Amino acid sequence: MDLEISNLRIFTPTGKKPIAGGNISKFEGSINIKNGRIVSIGEPCKANETFDGKNMVAIPGFVDPHTHIPFYGERSKEFVMRATGKTYVEILKSGGGIHSTVNMVRSTSIDDLVRENKKYLKWMLRAGVTSLECKSGYGLDLENELKQLKTIKKLAKEVPQTLIPTFLGAHAVPPGKDEDAYITEIFEMLKVIKSESLANFVDVFCDEGAFSVENASKLLKRAKEWGFKIRAHAEELSSNGFASVAAELGAVSVDHIIKIEESEIPALKKHGTIALLMPTTSFYLKTTYAPARKLIDEGVPVALGSDFNPGSNTFYSPLFLSHLAVNWLGMTPVETLTAQTLNAACVLGIENEVGSIENGKKADIVILDMPNLEYMSYMPTNEIVKAVFKNGRKVFENRSGVSW
Length: 404
Ligand code: NIG
Ligand code: FE
Description:
Layout: E1 3-12, E2 25-34, E3 37-42, E4 49-52, E5 57-60, E6 62-64, H1 76-83, H2 88-93, H3 98-106, H4 110-126, E7 129-135, H5 142-158, E8 162-170, H6 179-195, E9 201-206, H7 213-225, E10 229-234, H8 242-249, E11 253-256, H9 265-271, E12 274-277, H10 279-285, H11 292-297, E13 302-304, H12 318-328, H13 333-340, H14 342-348, E14 365-368, H15 375-378, E15 385-390, E16 393-397
Parallel strand pairs: 1-4, 1-5, 6-7, 7-8, 8-9, 9-10, 10-11, 11-12, 12-13
Antiparallel strand pairs: 1-2, 2-3, 5-14, 14-15, 15-16
The protein binds N-(iminomethyl)-L-glutamic acid and fe (iii) ion (FE).
Fe (iii) ion binds next to loops.
């Protein structure tokens, strides 16, 4: 054996399918790892290396299925504007918001993007995120959308995490352009992105101040024809029925859905669409929260993501996300952990490899210093993350001491 992580209490979902609600099993003992994969759980095995997990808990590496990495620059002035009364949509419509970040991304290089975003990926790794979605959407023309997607490709070679790329050319209509004409431009971008294999998913922001239901539907249909998997930013700011439309079109997930109508929920269940909720953004924008309980009680699997981006949410910690899920979405700690690991992996299509601590899966494991499962949402400080393993390799250990 290459590595034994010993003396653990292990909390994990099991399987390779999204779970509506939650299902967490508890094991005790060792996790034995060879060639980056979990070989057995329970009895200790002789190994080249041992990590003593005494008094610690092991959970699967967190999967963050929705981030806006890579981006460039910051928008703290907008944050203060919002704190003092302006809304997200007002700032977006007056040429700020997403457009501010687009200007900064357009005037930077791939190397600078890689440097800047490695920093965020390092923060995330220390917080236990071992796989995540990255997306474009701050280029809004072929050259700069490709720049972002190539940045993701470069980052994927240089950081330990698994990065899954999404093309979000339809994040906003570039200023001075007509929405219909820009959609046609995006169709052309799809061809290049397909031929260079730069994205697994195509996403669209269908909302007030972004794309209409009609254009968003056209785009997702076309993307599907081109062989992309599809997903959507749906009903974050306003209720327009796009969550159920995207589900009918075959979206793997519908993301945000703060304003989804109850009558749309059966469509998500029928088409096996995952509801991807991001209470971090509700918290950051001081808006309402998605109807997580209704979705779960109707049998829709829920995944949780950060939506980490420079405008609508800058919180990346999965522990803080778990706090918001329990406290504001009314999810149980068991549902929350399932939503941040297995269900999130199902959104990204990596459920055969990660998302649970099971024989055969990759050894992506977070070691937490906590007495029980509830504790991580109750005391959501990153200080409880004691170690992070990716593919069976220790990529973070918190040994920092203070001296006084
Ligand atoms: O998911 N909703 C659209 N996009 C992001 C915000 C991006 C930004 O403000 O830069 C979101 O909230
Ligand atoms: Fe988003």
